[in-house]
Records
---
Amino acid sequence: MPTYISLIQYTDQGIQKIKESPARLDHAKKGYEAAGGKIKDFFLVMGEHDIVIVAELPNDEAVTKLSLTLGSAGKIRTRTMRAFTEGEYRKLIQSLP
C-alpha cells in the first residue's frame, strides 16, 4: 500500500481548542481506517509544522478525500506527499533507462 507523509499545522481554531486534539486524532485514525488505510506513525514536532503523520492509504484519491474531509473541520491545514520506501526507490532506479 502506498505511504504518505502529512505535514500538519494547527489553525487558530485548532490551537484555541488544543485540549480536544487527542480526540481529534482518534477521530482521524478512524477516518484513515474507513478509507482503507492506517496511521503508521504520529509525531508532535517543533518548527514550521506542528504534526507529522506517516500513513498508508490505498491510493491518491483516498488520501485526497481524507485530507479534505479532515481539513474541512477547520482545525488543521495539511500538506501531504507520496513517499517511496527503500524497496520502491530501488525498483524505480533499476527501471531507469
---
Amino acid sequence: MEKKLKVLLLLGGTSPEREVSKSTGKSVYEALLNLGHEVIILDPAYGINQPYEVEDYFNENDYTEILNENYLDAVNLISANQINVAFLALHGKYGEDGTIQSLLELKGIKYTGSKVLSSAIAMDKIMSKILFEEYKVITPKWFHFKKDERTTEDVNNLIEQKFGYPAVVKPNDQGSTVGLTICKSSEQLVDAIHNAFEYSDRILVEEYIPGRELTVAVIDNSAMPVLEIRPKHGIYDYECKYTSGMSEYIVPADVPEKVAKSLQEIAVQACKSLRCEVYSRVDFRLSPDNKVYTLEVNTLPGMTSLSLVPKMAKAMGVSFEQLVEKIITLSLK
C-alpha cells in the first residue's frame, strides 16, 4: 500500500482484558508508524477524557475512570472524513462483540476485522456452536443454561448423561479463558458455576477433549500454518496466554500433513459459518487419535509479541508490519 493513511487506533476497552488490549495497541501503533501512516489513538473507555501523551495510553495504570457508557462519547470525537480506517486493537466485551463495530458503522467509519453480526455471533459461544453444527464443523458435546434455570444437581446430571467428567464450564461471552473451569468431578461444580456467572448470565458446559491445543489463523479466506500451544499449566489459561515463558509455541505444528490440511480446511469452514471477514483465529483440540474438535473463533485475535497470529505469519515469511498492512488493505476493500 503506497498511499499513507490516517488510521484511528482503538485500544484499551474494558476489563478483564484491558491490559492485553493495551499491549496489542502498542504493538500495532509502532507498526503503523513504521509503515508511515498517521495515527490517532482513542481508548473508548475514557470517553472524552483522552490522554494528551501517547505513552499514557499504554501505561498499566489507567489515565482516568473507566466506564462502558464512555464508548459513544469517544467515537463521537471522530468523524469519518478525518480518517481512512479504524484499526481495532480491542479485546473482550464491547470490542469483539459487535458493539464498537455498530458505532463505527453508524459513523460511516471503515474498520478492521469482521462486521457487526459475525462479531456478535463469534463472541456468543452458544450461537457459534449452533452454527458450527449447521455447517458440519465438529465441536465438543455441550449444553447451556441461564441464571436460575438449573440447580447444580441438574447440571451434574446433564454432564453425566451427555459426556461425563472432566467437563468444561465457562461463561457464554468472554474471551481469554476468563471465568473458565475444568471440573474433574462434581465437587468442583458449585465454584465453577459461580465463577462463570461472575462474567455472564449464561453458561456453556462442554465435553473436555484430552490432547493437544492447536490454532489456525485465517486471513482473506486462506489458512495460515497450524500452530501448537504447549502451556506450562494443563490448560492454556489467562496466565499462560499473556505471561512470557509460560507457553511454548511450535509453528508449523508437528502433526501429520493430512491432519494439518484438515485443520486448515476446518478453520476456513468455521470462519465461513460465522461470516467472519478479513482475519480471524480458530482454536482447536486435537485428541490422541488425531480427531479435530473446533472450540471457538476469535474475530479480533491478539497482536502482541506473545500473540499467535503474528507467529503464524512469521512462519510464512510475513513480518508484523506486513501483516498489519494486509489487514488494513483487506478492510478497505
---
Amino acid sequence: MTSGGSLALRFLMAARRPFIAIGAASLSIILLALAGSLFGHPPGELLAILLRGSIGSRFAIEGTLLKSVPLLLTGLSVAIAFRAGVWNIGAEGQFLAGAIAAYLAAPGGIIVAILAAMIAGAMWASIATAMRIWRNAPEVLTTILLNFIAIHLLGWCVNGPLRESAGQYPQSDIALATLPMLGATQVHAGILIAIAVCIAAWFLLYRTAEGLRLRATGFNANAARWAGVNVTAQIARAMAISGAMAGLAGGIELLGVTHRLFERFASGYGYSGIAVALLAQLHPLATLASALFFGALTTGAGELQRAANISATIVTFGQAIVILALILFGTWRLKERPHD
C-alpha cells in the first residue's frame, strides 16, 4: 500500500471512532430495553422511563450531572493511565483514599481538602508503581488488591476513629467544609473543577512534550526507551496523575454530595470509570460525553427501579454491553489496520 493510501485509510479509521462509540452506546440501550422486557414491560415503555428519569425534568438533569462528575474524573483517571500503557484498575481505592483525606483535611477549608484528596489518591496509586519497580508486580493485580485494602480502611474508619459522635451508625459526622452550590440547584461547583481537569488532561496529552512522551510510552515502551524517554519515570508520573484524579473524584463526592463518610461510599465509581474511558476511546474530551451518558444511564436506572420495579443494577449490564461491543468493534479494526 502506498504511503498516501495508508494515511487516507488511517484517517478514515480515526474518523470512524465516534460512530463506533455511538454504536456501542446505542446497542447497550437497545439490549437494556430488551432485557427489561423480560420483566413484562414493553421496550418502548422502558426507554421512556429511562429518558424521563435521566433528562425528563430539572431534577433529573441535576441528578444526571451529579452522577457524571465522579464518572468523568474516574474515567479521566483510567484514560491517563491506559494511555501510558499502565493498567490502573485501582480508581476505586484511590477514590476512597481521596475521600478519607478530604474529610480529615476539611477543617482547613475547601482548597486544603481538595488538595489533600488529590495527594492521597496519587500516593495510593504510587504504591502500585513502587511494587512494580521494586518487585515487578503487575499493576493489574496490585491496584485491585489496593481497592480491597481501601474498602477495609474506610470500614475501620467509620466504625472506629471517625465514627459519628452519636455512635448510632457506621458513618462519620458531617464534613466541616462543603462545596458551594451553583445557584438554586443541587449541582455543586465540583462540576466546574471536573470540566477544568478534563480540559487540562487533553492539553497535557496532546499539546505538551510530556504528553507526547507519555503516549509514546503507552504505544511502544521499547521504542520510547530507544528514543530517550525515561519509561519508568513516565509510568510513575502517569500513575500519580491518574491516582490524583480518582482521589479528586472522591473528595468532590464527599464535599459536594454525601458530606460524610460511610461504608460502600464509592458505589462502584472507580470501576465504572473503566467503561467511561473505554467508550471515550481514551480521549479526555470525549470522556466528558461518555460520563454524561453513563450518568444519565445511572440516574435513569434509578427511575426504572421506582417505576417498573427493575433493579437499578441493570446499569452494570449496560456497562458490560458497552465494553463487549467496543471489544468486538476493536477486533474488526485490528483486522482492517493498514499495513505499510
